[in-house]
Design goal:
The protein has 104 residues and is α+β, with helices and mostly antiparallel strands. Helices cover 32% and strands 16% of the residues. The strands form 2 sheets. Strands 1-3-2 form a 3-stranded antiparallel β-sheet, covered by helices on one side. Strands 4-5 form a two-stranded antiparallel sheet. The longest helix is centred in the first third of the chain and has 13 residues, at 10-22.
């Protein structure tokens, strides 16, 4: 298990965890319950760790692109239509906001 990201707070850590899991990379958040004592504790307590060390390079590359906004910029021009309800969606969305159907 390797640490991939140190978060400022638990919400950020869970956002990163969810992003990695949406790309098939198992991740866990550690230290989220210690953040209430940050006044006196080191600031690297809340972190995201990946379960499979062999996926570290891929996870790191995805995370850099995600946090820099590159993935959103790349997907912005790729609109799509929901196969279930026909709603038109912008490229960065992975599921239909109208009916919840995942992007094909």
């Amino acid at each position: 298990m390797k640490q991939i990201h140190v978060a400022k707070h638990a919400t950020e850590a869970h956002l990163v965890k969810g992003f990695l899991e949406s790309h098939g990379i198992e991740a866990v958040v550690r230290g989220e319950f210690l953040t209430s004592g940050w006044g006196e504790l080191p600031t690297d307590l809340c972190a995201v760790w990946i379960a499979d060390d062999e996926q570290y390079q891929r996870a790191d590359r995805l995370l850099v692109d995600f946090l820099s906004g590159k993935l959103a910029r790349d997907a912005a021009g790729n609109s799509w239509a929901c196969a279930r309800c026909g709603e038109r969606l912008e490229g960065q969305f992975t599921a239909c906001w109208k009916c919840g159907t995942p992007r094909p």
